[in-house]
Amino acid sequence: MLLDEMVIDENNVGFIPSLGISFEVNETAKRIIELIKEGKSKEDIVKIISDEFDVSWGEAYADVEDFFIKLKVYGLIQ
Amino acid sequence: MKIAISGLNNTDNPAPGIGVAKSLKGHNLIGLSYDANEPGIYQGLFEKVYLMPYPSLGYEEFKQRISYIKEKSNIEAIIPTLDAELPLYIKYQNEIEKLGIKTYLPSLECFEMRDKSKLPEFSKKLGVKHPKTIQITSLDDLILATRTLGFPIMVKGNYYKAYKAYNLDEAIEYYYKISNEWGFPLLAQQVISGVEINYVGLGDGKELIAGVGIKKLSTTELGKVWSAVSIDNKALFEVSKKFVETIGWRGAFEFEAMSDGKDIYLIEINPRFPAWVHFATMLGINLPEMMIKLIQGEKVEKKYDYPLEKMYIRYVEETMADFKDFTTLISKKEL
């Protein structure tokens, strides 16, 4: 998947070297991408985001779910 | 070496000649122009500029003019860069060579193989996908094509221009717009969603010598690149390499493709340097210089690596020239 090759720089811009496309990401998105690359499941990611960003499980679930849909729309994950 | 270069129209629809000339600054350069208004004439890159007869006038006109230029400026090589003149240069490359002027061009057979109308078959040879394409020579053909391919649809000229049409009215408008300017046939093509990526390369008739891949970041209204970023797309590199090896391409080329992240779709192969070729030079891959070395029979090391995430930026610049230069070029056909 394309997300594997995404390189995020110090300006929080994720760059895909094979296609030359880039995305601006916030801290939460950056962390979710890191966790996806580490091979964590969606459930694990929700738990980690909920803990690290001090939000409820429900709120974290909605955000992670929404972010996964966006990644699919942009073709970054299957 | 004294090298003649064509394609000096350095406007927002630039010809490749100036990018080639900037890459060959250490040589004595002669400009070949079709119009005294072409800005590249006045950029101080050429020791002499000659007006050329239009390629549509045929080889005899061309031969007369180029023989005169050879005699006067002793040019040793020519790098033609314009689509409209390439068929003439390619067809008569042996005759041009006999005049003592070297070129580095593909064979006529290779040139015709990558013609837009033959791409569906050719892309199979390369193992890449190609958007469904239907040749159209009448309004009925266009209507039928829109029924087969649906909307949106690309309406393209065989050599120049391409527009995306979202309905039949728009498709008809573009049909007339392109055919009135460039004639028939036209092509109706399926729209591929994805990212447009390009590769400029140089083949020696057997192997890919060097090249650079880019993604256009912004374009002009005519779709010409205004900013871009260097990329490393393995599939694009491999298919460009295969293109050279499969048909024995000799010379410059630009491989235009779409990628949906999984597959590569071949859109077009231009048989020349693109206008952004100087970006490759700035990245350390000086393709025109490599071409000159190959022309001179020197050995050229293959070079496929270049810095990534480098940005190419076009900008506007002004200069001043003597009006007398302009009038001299018009009246004497040389400057």
Task: Quickly list its features.
heterodimer, A: 78 residues, alpha+beta, 3-stranded antiparallel beta sheet, 3 strands, B: 335 residues, Rossmann fold, Dna Ligase, domain 1, D-amino Acid Aminotransferase, Chain A, domain 1, 3 domains, 6-stranded antiparallel beta sheet, 4-stranded parallel beta sheet, 14 strands, 34% helix, 25% strand, globular
Strand and helix layout:
The complex is a heterodimer of chains A (78) and B (335).
Chain A: E1 7-8, E2 13-16, E3 21-24, H1 27-37, H2 42-52, H3 57-73
Chain B: E1 2-6, H1 17-23, E2 28-33, E3 48-51, H2 59-73, E4 77-79, H3 86-91, H4 93-98, H5 108-113, H6 119-126, E5 133-136, H7 139-149, E6 153-157, E7 162-165, H8 168-182, E8 186-190, E9 195-204, E10 208-219, E11 225-231, H9 234-247, E12 250-259, E13 264-270, H10 277-282, H11 287-295, E14 311-313, H12 323-332
Parallel strand pairs in B: 1-2, 1-4, 2-3
Antiparallel strand pairs in B: 5-8, 6-7, 6-8, 9-10, 9-12, 10-11, 11-14, 12-13
Helix pairs in contact in B: 7-8
Largest interface: A-B, 9 and 19 residues
Mean pLDDT over the full residue set of chain B:
93
Mean pLDDT of chain A: 94
Q: Which consecutive residue ranges of chain B, at least 5 long each, have pLDDT under 50?
A: none
CATH H-level superfamily of the largest domain in chain B: ATP-grasp fold, B domain
Q: Count the beta strands of chain B.
A: 14
Major pleated sheet of chain B: 6 strands, antiparallel
**Number of helices, where a helix is a run of at least 4 consecutive DSSP H or I residues of chain A:** 3
Task: Report the helical percentage of chain A.
Answer: 40-55%
| Percent in helix of chain B | 25-40%
Distance between the termini of chain A: 7 Å
Please identify the oligomeric state: heterodimer
- The total count of strands of chain A amounts to 3
- The number of domains of chain B is 3
Q: What characteristic shape of chain B results from the CA principal axes?
A: globular
Strand-pairing-aware structural class of chain B:
alpha+beta
β-sheet strand percentage of chain A:
5-15%
**Domain module tally of chain A:** 1
Find the CATH topology of the largest domain in chain B. Answer: D-amino Acid Aminotransferase, Chain A, domain 1
Q: Beta-sheet strand percentage of chain B?
A: 25-35%
- CATH architecture assignment name of the largest domain in chain B: 2-Layer Sandwich
